[in-house]
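Input (structure):
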């Protein structure tokens, strides 16, 4: 992923059980937080922009039509003038499309930063990780398009599999299984330099022999992130509700949204490091892969043509 020389691999580069992976996750994050937090903060930007939009549209809960832009748009629509709502709709649509198009680039950079941290590679500027993401942008985009098509096709198939009556069981279970089987797709694109279809196939291949342990690990990480987010965000949401009622303003809710974004800025790279640890652990267990060799290969991947894991 860069021309940086990796540090000597230590005990992190060996098979570990779930407790050891979690322990190593905290150690890696504690050691590399300076390089991980910036990429996490970038993930908080969309939430910040939405908070700003919320404040602009509804600065005051008690505002009338002359003070509230959203109310003015709705009032104009009642008189046949939909230009304000159409402009707002287009703005939101463009915003969402831009986010979707930038997501593969961000994910590529996030995986690169996480892999460097796990493999004890020397930190590099964030721009270098985004350069890696840019180099692999089209394969990443193609992989996510295939994933989206796979999910779209899986939903009706799972509903039919449950004969409609039991679809409320087959649908969530099937989607969780699909998410588990495809969890390493991004890592296969960035770390193993595979194409979209090859990355999906690679993820299925890695997961199939360790499906249940990986599913259990994913559930634990999901619960951990959810509990931490709730513990941190709930007090702010509770206070925001009281403050909003007292001030008749959306500002407390917007600030709460900002706080949730900052919490996500920590959880996002933490989870990415955890997934990267699990990815390398799976490769070791299924392939007996030497991560010291892997780290050396990662260090010369500035030229994708020379990358061969």
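Output (sequence):
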């Amino acid at each position: 992923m860069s021309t940086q020389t990796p540090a000597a691999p230590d005990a992190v580069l060996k098979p570990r059980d779930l407790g050891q992976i979690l322990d190593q996750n905290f150690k890696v994050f504690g050691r590399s937080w300076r390089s991980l937090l910036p990429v996490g903060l970038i993930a908080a930007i969309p939430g910040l922009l939405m908070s700003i939009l919320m404040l602009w549209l509804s600065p005051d809960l008690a505002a009338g039509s002359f003070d509230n832009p959203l109310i003015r748009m709705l009032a104009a629509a009642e008189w046949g003038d939909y230009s304000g709502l159409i402009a707002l709709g287009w703005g939101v649509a463009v915003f969402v499309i831009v986010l979707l198009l930038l997501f593969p680039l961000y994910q590529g950079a996030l995986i690169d930063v996480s892999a460097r941290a796990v493999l004890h590679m020397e930190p590099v500027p964030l721009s270098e990780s985004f350069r890696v993401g840019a180099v692999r942008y089209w394969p990443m985009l193609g992989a996510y398009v295939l994933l989206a098509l796979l999910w779209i096709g899986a939903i009706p198939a799972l509903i039919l599999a449950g004969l409609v009556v039991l679809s409320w069981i087959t649908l969530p279970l099937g989607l969780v299984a699909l998410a588990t089987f495809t969890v390493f797709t991004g890592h296969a694109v960035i770390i193993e330099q595979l194409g979209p279809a090859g990355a999906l196939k690679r993820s299925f291949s890695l997961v199939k022999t360790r499906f249940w342990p990986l599913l259990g690990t994913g559930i634990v990480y999901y619960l951990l992130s959810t509990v931490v987010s709730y513990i941190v965000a709930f007090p702010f949401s509770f206070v925001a509700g009281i403050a909003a009622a007292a001030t008749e303003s959306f500002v407390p809710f917007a600030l709460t949204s900002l706080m949730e974004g900052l919490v996500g800025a920590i959880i996002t790279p933490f989870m990415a490091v955890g997934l990267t640890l699990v990815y390398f652990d799976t490769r070791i267990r299924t392939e007996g892969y030497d991560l010291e060799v892997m780290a050396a290969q990662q260090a010369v991947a500035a030229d994708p043509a020379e990358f061969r894991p």
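Notes: The chain is about 75% helix and 0% strand. The radius of gyration is 22 Å.
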